[in-house]
Amino acid sequence: TRGPSAFRVRLLPDVDDAKDRPLPLSSPMVSPDEGDAPFAKILWTNLGEGKACRFNSSDESHDGFGTAENKTASSVEECKSLCEQAIGCKGVEWGEEGLRCEFWTRTISAVVPLSGHQCLNFTDKAEHPR
């Protein structure tokens, strides 16, 4: 998939205060009402096809030192959608073999070559509902 996709999600307080442990993933609230909290527009950034995500340049682990959670998704689009619905997910790695979808709870800062994989980060920008 090429190009950004945009979705609206509820912004939550900064949950990245747990620097040394992965954040739990849970379902978000849905159906916002007038006057609700600001929303974010999610823009996906493909960090590379044929690339696996890594926490940083010295990360040789397969799960970002415990900051990635394995799921199953039939496509990269499904993997991204699952991440968008999970609180605390900051990016995904999707692998064709085994339909592997990794949710990353910390920002992905590096990639390494790995055939059949894609690594994607998302960024959000707050908007207030009109």
Your description of this structure?
With 130 residues, this protein is mainly beta. Strands 1-2-6-4-5-3 form a 6-stranded antiparallel beta sheet, covered by helices on one side. The termini are far apart. The protein has one helix at residues 76-84, and strands at residues 8-10, 39-54, 68-72, 91-95, 100-104, 110-127.
Features:
six-stranded antiparallel beta sheet, 130 residues, 7% helix, mainly beta, 6 strands, 1 helix, disordered N terminus
What does this entry show, briefly?
The protein has one helix and six strands, in the order E-E-E-H-E-E-E. It has one helix spanning 76-84, and strands at 8-10, 39-54, 68-72, 91-95, 100-104, 110-127.
Number of DSSP helices? Answer: 1
Helical residue percent band: under 10%
* End-to-end C-alpha gap: 30 Å
Strand element count: 6
Q: What does the largest sheet look like?
A: 6 strands, antiparallel
Structural class: mainly beta
List the helices and strands and how they pair.
Blueprint (H helix, E strand, L loop, with lengths): L7 E3 L28 E16 L13 E5 L3 H9 L6 E5 L4 E5 L5 E18 L3
